[in-house]
């Protein structure tokens, strides 16, 4: 415990788990007086050279005075943090606040001296960089704005830690010492450095789980059957390239081998290193297994065991303890309640899962939180991937179960630069950190397609996720903004994934349709129109079409500059000239090989033979059959997995490198829906290549707005601003509101109208009548006092006394389209800007578009065009187009307001009347509150558990 002289209680919120450069984890926490023995033990394991670099002189041991100084902190002016593994220190950092004279000081002094010491065995793991991020965040919290450090020139590693951090620095050399000073406010470069390190570390942590050098299955049963024994068999039959070990504490002492695999009673008994342990023991035995693995140096765990958070409060606490226990040893976890992991790389061949058969190698990465959905996805890709038009297989597969530690974000970090994965498919039942996921998704989607099915309900039991107040549709819109291909079912997930894995991206929405069935061609044409594509008139080759006819027609379509993609429709062959399946498949493939720049899809009706033939046309050798299905008795299709129309898988292997395989679909609607999603994604890729800009407006008074907000928040923790305060704050950002004068009596209304000038509007502003012109609470174009008094009487007669309806008088705005602009700070997703038409369009139909803040000029342009009712802004049915440029500027100004001042937690502008020239904001509300924590701007951490 801290002594009575210490000024602050132990800051538990500074504790954090971090992923280091090599993929291992460490716990960072404040140093306390209870750490004296740990500190001494840590110092004894540091080399004399490292001690010299720290103290600038030989310093073999710490004195009692040193130990007291380094363990007694007030957590304000003196702070020490330690990085720990297994409860022991591996590195320390401390700061001491100093004044202008370099001596110890207290606030308001805003500079501190910082120093590090890292155990030699852990140097090069990025420990110092992680500690610098955390000590800088602590210092900012305590009012420190600058760090100073003195480093010996020979200590190049520590100098590099400081210079590579990305902070604004000053550097000098005096008396044989390098003196560094740097500000602690995050900069664009420091955030970029931090996120690059985060990506490398998290990707490496997943790589250690997916590409281990050795695997131990803990809980392998002695008798055939059971989870552990099945996983061991799956690993063996997949041909895992490293050593395997079977572990069960119930093994007889004389049992040395099981199914040809070395058998041990404990992980501790294994003489060689173990990289990955698969735990298939009852939940109550998992803690012992985790401890054994941690002490042996295991790098990661796949926990198949159930009985955790999915089972209730006791299981939830058991799950928290599991994560804490594993992280204490530097291990990451997939699970618990996981289905397992697969890596088809020839260098690894890992099937540490309950899947009885290894998927075909391929370029698609799969992630599923649900084991049942994971089974269904593997089953569908098994059938569709090899039996439709060629072999498209899986690179890696992760089923995270309760997702207590490793999440979809971690796997995205791995896939981003994984050379074996070209397309990422994800089934997400919940998104624990939407802000981070959209950031990672945007970066990933710019390099390779990301297709997501997002669960619409609440988070499943066992998933630790932060609460978001955003509707499901809004989160989906934000995912699309980030370049995610958002689909609704796993069938659509596979449909889109196969097209993306096999064909190039289209350059536009124009679609040529050709085939031997007029009716199927027309169905495809109608489906294209429904999906927003631009189909050309279908070309009917008639049922007598030969393979050469198909080849010639497809070649012409691919050479036609007026089309961007081709859909080939085919029905079973009839007639003497009709081609056989193999002949037609080769005709289509040879035509596409000659013009590979455009995507080609096939819509087939009961053409299993054609699909198999197309597969065979791309194959180079037969695929050896495995005996796994016979061994396990597990069917190819998962229970409850409804066939999706794809024919059974063919025994073909991956097509030659560079071959474009033609995806085939059993229904026109499915083919066209997949194509439409890919067309939108391709357009997003083209637009994302040219980054938008956040405009600067000279009339924005950011400093004045900050002072106003600070003064208003001094009244309380959260408040909705009054009319005058709202007008003043928005005015600082160049947003003017039409004046509305309260009219508690008819005479007041008349005086207000005289001041504003006729014509005027008379409105009831009570909450139940606000923005409800359909209820009759608004009178427009009131031309004179007589009409005004008559309208006033009508409103009070219809809706109640003036004090109940709160009437106001407002000058008439130019006629235009009524719209609504909103911004809200969500604790999970961050600031979101929304736009739609006012009234029923947005309220009843949910026709609102959304973008994450800060919004760029390109975002603002796309935002107003994203709603279904957007034609009303652009001259629909001969109406005059409105001033969308003024509307875009308004959106950008609101975005700047909430981005510059996170205390502005909600803004609503309604209605905003957009006229042919200019716009008028007729109503506005603003809510202020202390801003939610921005974990994306803080130091790297794993989710707290």
Question: Can you put this structure into words, describing what you see?
Answer:
The chain is an alpha/beta fold and 945 residues long. Helices cover 35% and strands 21% of the residues. The strands form 6 sheets. The chain has an 8-stranded mixed beta sheet, with helices on both faces. It starts with 15 loop residues before the first strand and ends in a 17-residue tail after the last strand.
Catalogue the unreliable spans.
1-6, 617-643, 645-656
Q: What percentage of the residues does DSSP assign to strands (E)?
A: 15-25%
Shape: flat
Number of β-strand runs: 39
Structural class: alpha/beta
Q: Major sheet: size, sense and barrel closure?
A: 8 strands, mixed
Helix content: 25-40%
N/C terminus separation: 23 Å
Helix count, DSSP H or I runs of 4 or more residues: 28
- Average pLDDT for all residues: 87
The whole-angstrom Rg is 33 Å
**Major β-sheet strand ordering:** 1-2-3-4-5-6-8-7
Key attributes of the depicted protein:
945 residues; seven-stranded mixed sheet; flat; alpha/beta; single chain
Write the layout of secondary structure elements.
Layout: E1 16-19, E2 25-30, H1 36-44, H2 48-55, H3 64-71, E3 78-85, E4 88-98, E5 111-118, H4 127-141, E6 146-151, H5 156-163, E7 169-174, E8 177-183, H6 188-210, E9 215-218, H7 227-238, E10 244-247, E11 257-258, E12 261-264, E13 276-279, H8 286-296, E14 300-303, H9 313-328, E15 332-334, E16 340-343, E17 350-353, E18 361-368, H10 371-387, E19 394-399, H11 408-416, E20 423-428, H12 434-445, E21 450-454, H13 472-481, E22 485-487, H14 490-502, E23 510-515, H15 518-530, E24 534-535, E25 539-540, H16 547-559, E26 565-570, H17 581-594, E27 600-604, H18 608-617, H19 628-632, E28 664-665, H20 668-688, H21 702-713, E29 719-720, H22 723-732, E30 740-742, H23 746-756, E31 760-764, E32 778-782, H24 785-799, H25 802-805, E33 807-811, E34 817-826, E35 830-837, H26 840-843, E36 848-852, H27 857-865, H28 884-900, E37 904-914, E38 919-921, E39 924-928
Parallel strand pairs: 5-6, 9-10, 9-13, 10-12, 13-14, 14-15, 18-19, 18-20, 20-21, 21-22, 23-24, 23-25, 23-26, 26-27, 27-28
Antiparallel strand pairs: 1-2, 2-3, 3-4, 4-5, 6-8, 7-8, 11-12, 16-17, 16-19, 29-39, 30-33, 31-32, 31-33, 34-35, 34-37, 35-36, 37-38, 37-39
């Amino acid at each position: 415990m801290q002594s009575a002289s210490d000024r602050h209680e132990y800051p538990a919120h500074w504790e954090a788990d971090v992923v280091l450069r090599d993929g291992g984890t460490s716990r960072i926490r404040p140093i306390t007086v209870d750490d004296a023995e740990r500190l001494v033990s840590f110092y004894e394991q540091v080399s004399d050279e490292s001690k010299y670099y720290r103290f600038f002189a030989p310093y073999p041991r710490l004195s009692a005075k040193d130990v007291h100084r380094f363990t007694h902190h007030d957590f304000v002016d003196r702070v020490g943090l330690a990085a720990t593994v297994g409860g022991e220190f591996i590195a320390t950092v401390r700061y001491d606040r100093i004044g202008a004279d370099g001596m110890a000081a207290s606030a308001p002094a805003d500079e501190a001296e910082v120093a590090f010491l890292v155990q030699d065995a852990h140097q090069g793991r990025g420990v110092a960089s992680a500690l610098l991020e955390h000590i800088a965040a602590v210092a900012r919290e305590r009012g420190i704005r600058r760090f100073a450090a003195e480093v010996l020139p020979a200590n190049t590693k520590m100098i590099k830690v400081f210079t590579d951090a990305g902070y604004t620095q000053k550097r000098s050399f005096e008396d044989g010492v390098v003196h560094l000073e740097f500000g602690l406010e995050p900069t664009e470069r420091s955030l970029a450095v931090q996120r690059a390190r985060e990506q490398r570390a998290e990707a490496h942590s997943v790589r250690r789980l997916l590409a281990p050098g050795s695997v131990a299955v803990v809980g392998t049963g002695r008798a055939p059957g059971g989870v552990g024994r099945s996983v061991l068999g799956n690993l063996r039959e997949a041909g895992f390239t490293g050593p395997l070990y079977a572990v069960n504490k119930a093994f007889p002492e004389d049992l040395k081998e099981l199914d040809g695999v070395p058998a041990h009673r404990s992980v501790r008994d294994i003489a060689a290193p173990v990289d990955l342990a698969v735990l298939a023991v009852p939940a109550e035995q998992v803690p012992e297994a985790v401890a054994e693995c941690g002490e042996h140096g295991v790098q990661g765990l796949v926990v198949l065991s159930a009985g955790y958070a999915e089972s209730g409060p006791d299981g939830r606490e058991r799950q928290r303890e599991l994560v804490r226990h594993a992280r204490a040893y530097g291990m990451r976890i997939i699970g618990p309640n996981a289905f397992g992991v697969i890596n088809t790389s020839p260098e690894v061949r890992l099937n540490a899962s309950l899947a009885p058969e290894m998927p075909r190698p391929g370029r698609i990465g799969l992630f599923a939180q649900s084991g049942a959905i994971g089974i269904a996805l593997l089953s569908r890709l098994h059938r569709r991937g090899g039996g439709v038009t060629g072999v498209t297989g899986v690179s890696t597969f992760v089923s995270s179960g309760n997702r207590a530690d490793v999440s979809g974000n971690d796997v995205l970090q791995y896939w981003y630069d994984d050379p074996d994965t070209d397309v990422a498919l994800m089934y997400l039942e919940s998104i624990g950190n939407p802000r981070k996921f959209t950031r990672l998704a945007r970066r990933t989607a710019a390099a390779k397609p990301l297709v997501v099915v997002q669960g619409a309900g609440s988070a499943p039991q066992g998933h630790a996720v932060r609460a978001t107040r955003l509707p499901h549709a809004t989160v989906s819109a934000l995912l699309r903004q980030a370049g995610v291909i958002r689909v609704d079912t796993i069938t659509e997930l596979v449909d889109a994934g196969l097209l993306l894995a096999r064909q190039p991206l289209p350059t536009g929405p124009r679609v040529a349709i050709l085939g031997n069935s007029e009716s199927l061609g027309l169905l495809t044409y109608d489906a294209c129109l429904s999906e927003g594509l631009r189909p050309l008139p279908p070309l009917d080759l008639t049922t007598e079409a030969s393979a050469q006819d198909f080849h010639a027609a497809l070649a012409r379509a691919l050479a036609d500059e007026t089309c961007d993609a081709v859909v080939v429709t085919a029905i079973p062959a009839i007639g003497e000239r009709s081609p056989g399946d193999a002949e037609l498949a080769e005709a289509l493939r040879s035509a596409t090989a000659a013009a590979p720049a455009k995507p080609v899809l096939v819509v087939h009706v009961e053409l299993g033979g054609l699909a198999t033939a197309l597969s065979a046309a791309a194959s180079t050798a037969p695929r050896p059959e495995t005996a796994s299905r016979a061994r396990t008795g597990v069917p190819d299709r998962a229970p409850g997995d409804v066939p999706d129309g794809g024919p059974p898988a063919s025994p073909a292997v991956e097509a030659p490198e560079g071959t474009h395989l033609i995806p085939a679909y059993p229904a026109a609607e499915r083919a066209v829906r997949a194509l439409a999603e890919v067309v939108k994604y391709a357009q997003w890729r083209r637009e994302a290549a040219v980054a938008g800009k956040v405009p600067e407006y000279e009339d924005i008074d950011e400093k004045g707005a900050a002072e106003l907000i600070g003064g208003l928040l001094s009244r309380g923790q959260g408040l909705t601003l009054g009319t005058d305060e709202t007008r003043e704050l928005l005015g600082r950002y160049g947003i003017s509101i039409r004046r509305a004068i309260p009219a508690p009596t008819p005479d007041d209304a008349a005086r207000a109208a005289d001041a504003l000038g006729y014509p005027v509007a008379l409105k009831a502003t009570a909450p139940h009548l606000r923005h409800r012109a359909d209820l009759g609470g608004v009178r427009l174009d009131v031309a004179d006092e007589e009409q005004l008094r008559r309208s006033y009487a009508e409103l009070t007669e219809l809706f109640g006394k003036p004090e109940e309806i709160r009437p106001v008088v407002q000058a008439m705005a130019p006629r235009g389209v009524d719209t609504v602009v909103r911004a809200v700070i969500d604790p999970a997703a961050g600031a979101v800007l929304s736009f739609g038409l006012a009234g029923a369009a947005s309220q009843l139909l949910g026709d609102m578009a959304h973008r994450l803040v800060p919004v760029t000029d390109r975002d603002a342009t796309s935002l107003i065009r994203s709603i279904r009712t957007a034609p009303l802004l652009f001259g629909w049915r001969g109406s005059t187009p409105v001033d969308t440029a003024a509307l875009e500027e308004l959106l950008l100004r609101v975005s700047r307001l909430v981005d510059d001042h996170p205390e502005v937690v909600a803004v609503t502008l309604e209605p905003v009347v957009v006229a042919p020239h200019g716009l008028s904001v007729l109503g506005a509300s603003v809510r202020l509150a202390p801003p939610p924590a921005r974990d994306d701007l803080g130091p790297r951490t794993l989710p707290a558990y």
